[in-house]
Amino acid sequence: MRKRTAPSARRSCLGVPGQFLASLQERLSSQIKTFWQGSGVHAANIGLILVALSLLVNFAHQVLQSANLETQRSSLATEVTQLETETNQLKRAVEYAESDASVERVAREQLGYANPQDTVLVPQFLEPTPTPTPPDPSPKVRIRPTPAPNWQLWWKALFGPEMNQG
Description:
This protein is an all-alpha fold. The chain has a domain at 15-106. Helix content is 67%, strand content 0%. It contains six helices and no strands. The longest helix is centred in the middle third of the chain and has 57 residues, at 41-97. Mean pLDDT is 80; it is low at 8-13.
C-alpha cells in the first residue's frame, strides 16, 4: 500500500529540484529492487515463458515431422497397391502356366504335337525341275575387250564414272 503524504510535504519537495530528483530516483530504485527481489515472481515468469517457447518449438517440430510421415505413408501406400497388382498378375500367370490349356498350347505351337482327334495336314512343296537346255553346237569365241589405260582407271576411281564421260 502506498503511503500518503501531506500536501505540505509534497510542496516542499517540489520547491527544491535536487531533492525532487533524489526522491524520484530513490522511489524508482526501491520499486526496481522489489520487482527483481520480490518473491521470485519475475523469475518464475521468465521460466514459464522459456518453457512455453520450448513447447511451441517442439510442437512445430512435431507438426513438420507428422506432415513428412504422412507424405511418406501415402507414397508407401501407393507402392503397396502397385505391388499387390503386380503380385495378382503374376499369380494369374502362374495359374495359367500350370493349367492344361497352357500345356496344350505349348505342345501345339512350339513342339508341333496334335490331338488324336485332329486331322493333320502336311503341305508338300514340289520343287520345279529345271528344263535342261540343249548344248549349243557352235562354240562361241569370246573376245576380251582391251583394258583401259591406267590413267583412266585412276580417273574413274577418284572422280567416278560420270566425270569420265563429259
